[in-house]
């Protein structure tokens, strides 16, 4: 099965992309075999020439696709070329894998070369935003490293994008929830809005404050304390008002906040 092949590609800790012993001849037939052989040779001219009128997202033997094969073969040039030819790296999902899509694998890779190849091929730094889905920057915060986030910001990602017409979390919000406060520090340094208010009254400041009450001493707590101090420098009050208090403020503004289950107001 493809999943067993990709266990060679995707290791849960860090999702390091590694080469494997499976060849194009084992996994593809017909036109797709010729394209896979071109990927093996890193022959982008042959890949482009053979791609006309071919479904580049079709699955071969063991459900392998050309994009997954390019990753398995450690061929960032082929990854870039396939994106240029119209293959979206967030397609071809695989259930039960640490990274469900090629884009997920690029974000979980130990380095940024595969994400960079996808961007060079034409993937938008704001991918997902137009479809009202999770924006690529948010995905990088969750699954990637600071280097992945830096790459997207340097390429022009909307640092303050929020899906759901502004109802959902920003990249900064996401970065304060996990184990990588260095990303939150970087986003604040780059001008991220320091205190988003969600529809349920939860603010970025409240999320930071609440986590600090529960985190034991250690690097993550120390990093989050630095985030708090940077937010204070940017005019955010600490301790912040609770979500209940914020929802009352929203009502005073004529808004209708979303009340979480189990709460009266």
From TrEMBL:
This is Ankyrin repeat domain-containing protein. ANK repeats lie at residues 132-164. InterPro entries: Ankyrin_rpt, Ankyrin_rpt-contain_sf. It comes from the Bacteria. It comes from Billgrantia kenyensis. Keywords: ANK repeat, Repeat.
